Structures are given as C-alpha cells and as structure tokens.
Amino acid sequence: MALPAKMPICGWLLALSLAALTGNIVAANERTERNCSLTPPYIPSTAVNTTLRLQELREKMLPLNISAYIIPGTDAHLSEYIAPRDNRLAFMTGFTGSAGTAVVTQTKAAMWTDSRYWVQAERQMDCNWALEKDVSVASVVDWLLAEVPHGGQIGFDPFLFAIRKHTEYEVNLESSNRTLKSIPNNLVDEVWKDRPPIQPYSLTRLPDRVIQRSWQMKVEHIRNQMADNPYDSTALLLSALDESAWLFNMRGNDIPYNPFFYSYTLLTMDEIWLFLHTERVTDELKVYLNASCNGPLCVQLKSYDTILGELKKFVAKPGCKVWIGTEYTNYAVVEVITQEKLFTSSYSPVLLTKAVKDETEQRVLRDAHVRDAVAVVQLLMWLENAVPKGTETELTAAHYVDKCRSKQMDNSGPSFETISASGPNAALAHYSPTNETCRRLTVDEMYLVDSGGQYLDGTTDITRTVHWGIPTAMQKEAFTRVLMGNIEISRTIFPSDTRGINIEMLGRRALWEVGLNYGHGTGHGVGNYFGVHEWPVGFQSNNIPFRAGMFTSIEPGYYKEDDFGIRIEDVAVTVPAQTKYGNNYLTFDTVSLVPYDKKLIDTSLLSSEQLQWLNTYYETIRRVLGPELDKQGLREEKEWMLRNTEPFSRSDSGSTRLFSSSLTLITVAVALLQNTV
Amino acid sequence: MALPAKMPICGWLLALSLAALTGNIVAANERTERNCSLTPPYIPSTAVNTTLRLQELREKMLPLNISAYIIPGTDAHLSEYIAPRDNRLAFMTGFTGSAGTAVVTQTKAAMWTDSRYWVQAERQMDCNWALEKDVSVASVVDWLLAEVPHGGQIGFDPFLFAIRKHTEYEVNLESSNRTLKSIPNNLVDEVWKDRPPIQPYSLTRLPDRVIQRSWQMKVEHIRNQMADNPYDSTALLLSALDESAWLFNMRGNDIPYNPFFYSYTLLTMDEIWLFLHTERVTDELKVYLNASCNGPLCVQLKSYDTILGELKKFVAKPGCKVWIGTEYTNYAVVEVITQEKLFTSSYSPVLLTKAVKDETEQRVLRDAHVRDAVAVVQLLMWLENAVPKGTETELTAAHYVDKCRSKQMDNSGPSFETISASGPNAALAHYSPTNETCRRLTVDEMYLVDSGGQYLDGTTDITRTVHWGIPTAMQKEAFTRVLMGNIEISRTIFPSDTRGINIEMLGRRALWEVGLNYGHGTGHGVGNYFGVHEWPVGFQSNNIPFRAGMFTSIEPGYYKEDDFGIRIEDVAVTVPAQTKYGNNYLTFDTVSLVPYDKKLIDTSLLSSEQLQWLNTYYETIRRVLGPELDKQGLREEKEWMLRNTEPFSRSDSGSTRLFSSSLTLITVAVALLQNTV
C-alpha cells in the first residue's frame, strides 16, 4: 500500500480499507454525506459551517428591504468556470461544484444544482441549506413565490445575471406581485473578509505561428459585420472573456484551467476601448496593441472597474446604438443603456466568427491533438502494467496523465480538473477524485478517465473507459452501444447549417434500443487555447448550426448508479462531405487519436458501416500518431498503439450471422459437389 | 381523350397537347407564370387584378395614420385552414395557398410565402405584388424597416395575430422607432364587398360510439388541472376551434375539410360560457349542453360577437386570472386582459390533454384507417389498370379516390384537397390539380397521391408514390431512401417525452447520405375528426414531447424540380416499447395500411432491420386489412393487396453484397475441392 512519494495519499481509500477490516463498510460510506433529519444533525467533516456568514449576509439584506437574495455561481462575464474570488456560491454554501444557484431569505437558504452534483452537495453543505434538484428558473421562482410575501422584493447582483437569465426570471415572476431589485454592490463580497485578490499576472500575446489573423484583421472583419448589420449599430460591447481574448490574440490566467483575463471591449467604427486591469499590461503589450494613440486601429486601455461609468458616458451621445449578445452579457451593462440605443442578438458577431476556425487554427488544433494523444496513450499503457500490481489509485492516475501532458510541447497545464473515476465513482458523471473519495484501481472495476490539455495551439478534451480484467456482458454491451453512438454521430453526413440538437440522438439511439440512456449533453465546442467548453458550438438546443471548420466534442455515455460509468469522448471537426448528388454537405473528422479498449467492444453488435468507420479511424491513428511517437522516441508506446489499433476482421462483426448462413451454403455446395464427384 | 361525364376536363392538358402538336411546349409552360420584367408585364389569366382593391385599401389606411398594413393568412382562431370568408390574403393578392402574409404600404405591396407555393404565387398574383421568399418575421420586419419611415406606425388586425406572433413582431421591431398599431376593425373587410357570409349550418354532436369521455367528464378533468396549477388561474379561455369542438364533443363545418364551428369557450370553476352563433344551436343541442341553467355543468350560450365585451366585464371582477395558450389565442382577447390577470402557457391544458388519445379514441382512429386503406387500395388498383389506357388525369384520379372514400362508413368527405400529381407537378410539394395545370397520367411518369378522409371516428392522411412503367435508377434510389427514412422513424425506440424534432433527422438520414433532402416538415399530429394537421403533436420544433397514445404522420419525401416528386406518408401511434433494460420507452405503430410500390424499392439498399420492419408491416396489412376487404366483399382488391404485400426475401436485401462475396467463397471452395479431387 506504499504510494510513491509526491503522490497524495488517497485518504478515503485508507479509511475504507480500515472499515473493511472491521466489517463496517456501509457505515464508512454513510458518513460522507450530511443527515439533517437526525437530532442533532450529522454534518460530515467535508461540510462548511455557514451559520455566521449567513447571519452576516442577512444583516446586509435588511436595510435594502429585500426578502430574498439570489447568488448565482458565475462571474461578471458569465464564465462557466470561475476564479476562486468569484466563487461566492462556494463561500456562502460550502458547495464547490461548477454549477449552482443559491437563494437566501431571513429564515431559509436553498441551493439548486443538477444531478451531477447532488452527492457532492450533500457532502459539502451544512444543514443551514436545503438542496433543490430542479435547476430550472421556474423551480427557483416557485420556491421564491412560496417564501417571498406579496409585494416583496428579490435582490440580485446585475453583474451575475445574463440578460437572458434576467428576462427568464422576469417572465416567471410576471403577475406574481414580486419584483427583482438590482443591487450592483455584491452583498456576499461585503461579508467575505478573506476574498482572494486579483492575481498579479502578466498577460501574454499568442505566438505568430499559431495565428492566421492579426488582431487588426479581426477588428476590420468585425467592423465589416457591424456595417452590414441593418440595425445601424455604432458599437459592439464584448463581455465574455473569450471574446476579448480572441479579438486581441491575447491570453491570461485569471481562471484556473482557462487562459482568460478579466476584460470588456467596446468596439466602434473608429475606436477600440479595452477595459482590463491596466497595471498588468507590459510595455511590450502596449506596443503590440498600439496603446498610445486614438485612431481606428489603436487600442485605448481603460481601467476594468470603469466599465459602467465609461459606458454611461458613451451611450449619452446622440445616435449611438450598442450591439450586445444576450447569452454572454451581464444585466449590469445593459441597465445603463436605454432600450432604443440597444441592439441584441443571442451571440455577438465575435462569438459567431470565432466558432468557425480558419485554416491555421484548424491545422494547429489538429496538431495539439496529436501531441495530446501521446500523453493519453502513455497513461493507458502505464495503467495496463501498473494496475494489476495494486498500487495505483484514481489520484495517481490523474497526476500521471497531467504529468505526461506537461511534457508535451506548448502545454500549459490541464484544460480542466482530470476526471479519474473507478467503478461506482465513474457513475457520477463529473466526479473528480479527492483524498476523501478516491478509489484504488483494480482489475475488477471499469475505469473512466476524462482529461484534456491547454496548449498554445489548442485545447483538448478526451475520455476513454477501460477494463483491465474481465468485463461483465452488460458492461461490454453498454460500452459497445456508447461506442456505436459515438461512431454514428461521427460518420453521419448532414447538410451544412444543421443544428447539433437535430442529430445528437444518433449518440443515444443504440442505447435507447435496449432501454439505456445518459443524462448529460452529447458535446460542446472546443477551440484554440480557450475554455474547454467553447460556446456556441455543440449539440445543445441553444448551439448554432454546424458549418465547415467547427470543432466539437462527441461524448455519449452510460452510467449505472453505484456500479460503473462509461463515456467515450472525442473531438471532431466538421469537414465537407462528398455526396453522390448534393453539395454543401458536412461530416465529422475525428481529431482525437486514441484507440478504444478492444476488450469492451462486442463487434457482433456493430453494423458493417460502423466496423468500417472504426477500422478507418484506427488507420488514421496509425498514420498520424505513429510518426509523432517515432519523433518523440517512444518505441514502447508505438508498439502499444499498433497492438491496440489492429483492424477488426469482418468475422468479428454483425455480419457474423449472415456469414454463418454463407458457411451453411458453402457446406451445402461442398456436399453437392462431393455427391457429384 | 374522352373523359367520363361528371369528370371536369383537364384544360391545361388539352392546351399542352395542342402546343405539342405545334412544337411549342416550352412556350405553353412559360405562359403559366407572370413576368413583371416585361413592358408591359405579362400577367397569366390565372392571376387576379388587384389594382382597384389595393387602391381602396390604401384609402382606408390614410385616416388611421399607418404607413403599412399587415394581412396574415389566418382567421380569429389562428386556424391553419380557413373559410373563404376569412381568406383576406387571397382576396387582396389573388394567391390562394394555405400559408402567407401580405403587407401593403401606400406605394408597395409584398407577399411572403414558403417554397411550396412560389410557383403558385407567380401564377396567381399580378404585378402589384412582390413575392418574398423568406417567411420569417425577421424578413417581414426587414422589409418594413426599409419601407416605413422612422416614427411610422404599422397597422394590424389583433384578431389575426397569435400572441406569440405579436411578441415576435414587437421583439423584431424593438428599438427600430416603428410601432405596431392594433386596429380591431379589419380594413380588408371594409373594401371586400362580396365577402361570403357565415354558413347557415346546424352543429352536431358526436355519436356515443366514438366517445369515451362525455363533455362533462372533460370539463371536470380540465378544471382539476386548473386547480392544480400553482398560478391560481380562475378561468380558462379557449380560442382555437378544435379546443371547443373537443371539449363539447361537437362538430360543425364552417371551414372546408375541417369539421369546426366558430367558437370561444370561457371555463371557470363554476361556469361554462360558450361563444358561438347561437342561432345555429338546435333545441336538441341545447338539452345536450344543459343550456337552460347556470350551474357548474350548465353551458351558457353567448353570442360569438360578444366575446370582447363579455371578457372585459369578466376580467373587471377582482381576483380573477385568465389562463390562455399563447400559440392559438389571438392578440385581441389578450389586449382586454391586464397583465396581472393573465397566465400564459404555450398550449392550453385542453390542447395538451387532447394530444393523448384515450382508449376509445385510439381504437376508433385505428378503425377509420382500416376503412381508409380500402379506398386507397381501390384507387391504386384502378390506376394500375386504367393509366396504361391513357384516359386518366390527375383530376380523374383525385375524384376517384374521393369517391372511394365517400363509400366508406362514417365518411364525411376528404380531410383536405387531394394532392394528385404526376411527373414535375409532384415536385411542387403541396400541389393540387386544377383544370389549368393537370397532367395526363402515363407509364412514363411517377405519380404522387396525398389524400385523406374525415370520418366520424377519425381523420386520415396518407401519401403513396407509384410508377406504372420503368423507373429510372435515380427515381428508384430516391424512393428507396425516402422509404428508409419512413422506416427508420417508424421503427426507432426512444424514451417517453422525447421531442419529435430530436428524432426527425432519421427521416432524412438515408437521403443526406447521398446529398438529397426535402424542404418540408416530417410529420404532424392527426386525430379523431379534427383538422388534418392536429397540433401540438409532430416533429416540428414547437411540438410537444411524445407520450404514449399520440398519433402523428411520418412523411419524408424528395422532390426533383421539373422532374418528379416522392413522398411516403403514414400515420402512426406512439406505443410502449419493450426494451432489454429500461422502462418508459416508446416506438411507433403504423396505422395506415397500404403497401408501397414494390417496383420502386431497391432492397439492396435496405438494412436487414429495415427489411424485417417492412415484412412485419406487410403481415400487419394482411392481418388487419384482409378481413375488412372480405367484409366489404372486395375480392379483386383483396388479391391485389395480397400480391402487393408478398414478403421480400432475404436475397433481395442489402446483404446481397455479402452474399455475393459468399458466392465467391463458394466458388473458391468448389475450385479447391475440384483441385483436391
């Protein structure tokens, strides 16, 4: 049980082993979650005591005359992943999951999060908090209607509400006689004494080798779109962090795993205002940005905190009209723009332009996936040897793959916290191991690893599920059907401008056939050194239609509670498809290059088309990954890759049944011949 | 060329024959559409001269101070099919298609309709009208922004705008400095001198044998849903015509092909107000409706025209809150309800309840489809004999199937104007033959017939495409791929509560594979003696999720312009599917019972699953339709049906390719044996 030095000890694993010795496993499991129905309630050590901070927040609420205060789990840029200093939800509730909303009244407190996080919430929250499981705005509003008296006001921080979210609340509260009250000074910040400061970090510009379009070219391109827009917008306000990062080809590291810097951009036809923490802009970057002039291609640097004041002054001028995207702009900046000076679309022209990668972006993003595949192959090969020895855990595996990635060129860390999950832990779709929960890896459990890297040239995200022992028939069937889902999406041909939501059922269909399904989405956009979930591309209902040159993950799965979890995730790019009769059709080209666990594939379930796709994919892995492994001098890894990409033979496939009837025919033919002879 | 008496003469066919004699076919074709770029413009005889009526309308617009007037193609109940007296769009423009919107300014006039109707519009409109092809509200608004000056008003009839449509216009006009002006007195009616009157028709109640729930039971059921609603609605306003028809188990015939009567219902917990043309209510119906009392199960009859006045009085009472469905309620009734007295959902609880058919409804709707199949089999068999003789046309075929249906029990006419289309006419997806356009049926062209019946127990809708000669390889491939689409949807297994829009791509996928597609939806709800397109069930994005007991059409197609059209349409009901692991899964059970044209099926393209589905379907036709044909003494039809439902053998199927390799194997085996011997 000796773990290598520098590897964190898997605390819960040790506790479990101890419990097993005393025959008390169930009790050990129970103790990880709170039990508020006991007197006194049972609170696990992983929970945070929120009594005092709740009391302080309630005191701040009183003079404002609000009956409830909403605490969303986001930042002023509606980022999906946020910096610790923006994690007001975690501070108030103890819950650290990446999605949630809290509401506090003078007597109650409730937190809404989705099924991925229910167990985690029960482990991290004390009994001040109720856990609510329906995360729709309607559900939050139902709760508010029960708790807020008629005529009551509900406070919220307008910086933390997307415009669309604000509208959704307003629509749901309509004619309920309760109103929203915008409070720009965040009340949680007022009681959060040791809130982390802004990081003193220098921003960087991307190297030229990963860029096709300079920031000046991008600015011109966006201005052309503004000029073409019939609504006569005179300015574009960019609020999402990846918008400014993309426009200026710059990156930062304000948010873990996400190379962003806090910023807004106001772009007009003859000026560019970049709001950011100006003290972090080096002299070199000032030159890069033409920061010392005021012309159309000069970037005027403004202090981040002046956004509302500057915007107010700007919109006071006659004839101006500001274009904003409603999905990623906060309500605070919209509050200061009068209705007739506002033009909205779901996504800004920057997000729509960024969604289609240019030739260079496509090339370097593919390159990043080749190097990334090396790291994942190294992990899988290492585990195959190490796991049977009984020394590895979910955490050691996660650290191993992170280390492998860090050795690859242009890597700047993982793109999210590695999900390394064995057996029942993998049934929690977004589980990441901690000392308290981590399991030892064994030949008796399926293992799921979902990980990705940030590289200067691209962001990666890949999931493989493996078994080092003998999988059950059900595990093999479920894995094969998840794989069939992945293949069916990957190989499908569809007209350009088809929405992901209209084809994502192909990822589920083979599972549905036997009454299985999964509870998460089927894929999200991925790009060139941005957040790992890059909107607005993917298979969700609010994603934009596919055009050639978009990168998305494809990740069907299946999760059997308390037993195992399967997910097979690849990144693919939409490419033109040649068809017999039509033009303007697309298909996917998979850019992740790691073989699937052969042991888990029941080829008799695959159609001949699926089998053919699989063999073609494996040929691609050999052709593209092989030379990279050679280049890096990884002989053993190359052999492992070749062993695991051997083509499946026809006789393994679903056509077996047909072939067996062919064999009967042969037998008959032979028998006939023999009679003749 | 002698057509049977009573059959209308196919005028255009004769013209075409004459043209052919003089070698002038192309010119004959050209002459059917207007040409506004000529001087003077060429206007075909099928077009309507709208100069005078436009002038009169523009005079009515002047005193109202509106720069534009919108004329939607619907009625006050947002009906899809409308009575001639409501066809203001047709009166103003000449265009008689079932979907369109017109806008008139003092100098311009434009009409928006979708691709199904572009050719028809060019034939029916004079050069006062521009044809606009993007039917989105955004496109209409773009046009309005170009034509209406800043500060200008745009007039509309609030009775002809669904609430949702009104919101859509408002959102699109937002911050454009143009406003909508509600004008409850319709301006077209003011210039339409010979507008048809209301029909003097007696309403009827449905016979008990087709009903499980009396109107009293339905009222109680809906009241329970009102009581359960957390928004405390005290009244439900029903505005769509099928809502009142369903609730009271009553029908009328105000709209051709649609058994509806003009009506609104206001339902509270202790009163029922039915607004209709009271002079049409017979004494027997008054008894049926308990019309002489005021209790909770008494129907108080109110005059149709008093709806706004009565509603105003009703909402003036304190504490009332009116529930309406935004998809099928006009803006006029909402205008009189203040915001805080309104509760909205997309569809009323009546439309949602009606969407799931009860046991009796399911049984009798299946029965109607059995009798309906007899009529379609009679048509197909008759055409097979008659067409080679050269005497039949699109119109004679349409009349034949209408006549066959009329002989079936409980038939009350077709459910829409029969689409009977040969060769290039079938490429117009919703073409119906007229004297001017109808073609002779020949063995050289594909033929498409889309028809349906209204029966007291159900509404039917079925499309078959056939060829009496030798189809081209492309026709056969396209037909087979359309059929594959129909089969793939029909046989798919999916979780209850899946939306149609998420699975409808299965109807397109086999076409997409070779770069083909179709430009219309994939299916719509069908029900028990209502309109043939019964909302909100189907495969459109605003349809509700599927639950067991919903009936929908499944109708993929393919249309090759100026050449041929294919559509294969069946009605199917969602039924529970048994799966290996899961519960609450559904699949479709096809209730239309007419075989497909064997000659057009390339079985080598079908998967073994598709082939198996097809053979099982044919067994069902034999099992269910066979006894009905026997009962009706239709021996010849029975033989035709049996001939056309012979099972496809395995050797016809997609496994051919595998079998041919098996044959190679056999050859090899035999060769080896011979060598041995």
Rounded to the nearest angstrom, the distance between the terminal CA atoms of chain A is: 71 Å
Which class do the helix and strand fractions of chain A yield?
Answer: alpha+beta
How many individual β-strands of chain A? 26
**What's the overall geometry of chain A?**
globular
Which percent range describes the beta-strand content of chain A? Answer: 15-25%
Major sheet of chain A: size, sense and barrel closure? 6 strands, mixed
Tell me which oligomeric state these chains represent: homodimer
Helix content of chain A: 25-40%
Mean pLDDT over the full residue set of chain A? 91
Strand order of the largest sheet of chain A: 4-3-2-1-5-6
Number of discrete helical segments of chain A = 21
| Low-confidence parts of chain A | 1-28, 653-677
For the CA atoms, what is the radius of gyration of chain A?
27 Å
Largest interface: A-B, 51 and 52 residues
